[in-house]
Amino acid sequence: QLQFVESGGGLVQPGGSLRLSCLASGSTMDSYHIAWFRQAPGKEREGVSIISSSGFTTYYADSVKGRATISRDNAKNTVYLQMSSLTPEDTAVYYCAAKRRLYPWSDYRSYDYWGQGTQVTVSS
Fold first, then answer.
1. How many CB atoms lie within 10 A of CB 96?
2. Quick check: helix, strand or coil at residue 89?
3. Alpha-carbon distance 69 to 31, whole Å?
4. How far is CA 13 from CA 9, 18, 32, 47, in A?
5. Which of 5, 36, 54, 77 could make an SS bond with 48 (beta carbons 3.0 to 4.6 A apart)?
6. Cα–Cα distances in angstroms (integers) from residue 67 to residues 18, 47, 111, in the given order
């Protein structure tokens, strides 16, 4: 049974950077595609990025393209999301999620395992 714990969130100033971590436990994450989602109050859960099980394929939402980098370290059972040039529109709870099929990657309903999330607040 795959479980996740997200960390690295917090309060950052506009223009700042942040690296989020998603630590898997209960099982190896090697065979899963791992995605980051985010949800702001009153808004739908949005797919931010995904990295395939092999690490070879990545996708990004238009809203973060050029500002975000997803990576994984299977030896550490951890997925990362590096974000830069943060704006208040990036404020949300960020979740990691996993599934065995890559597509559709941005539909939260297609994911089987979820972490509890970490809060990111971008404000001056």
1. 30
2. helix
3. 20
4. 12, 10, 33, 23
5. 36
6. 11, 15, 24
**Exposure class string for 50-72: b at 16+ Cβ within 10 A, else e:** bbebeeeeebbbeebeeebbbeb
Please report the pLDDT score of residue 116 as a whole number. Answer: 97
The DSSP bridge partners found for residue 33 are: 99
- Give the C-alpha separation, 104 to 22, whole Å: 21
Collapsing DSSP to helix, strand or coil, 97 comes out as strand
pLDDT band per the 50, 70, 90 thresholds, residue 112: very high
Question: Coil, strand, or helix at residue 100?
Answer: coil
Torsion of the alpha carbons at 27, 102, 98 and 8, rounded to the nearest 10:
110
Radius of gyration (Cα) for the chain, nearest Å?
Answer: 13
Q: How far is residue 44's CA from residue 41's CA, in Å, rounded to a whole number?
A: 8
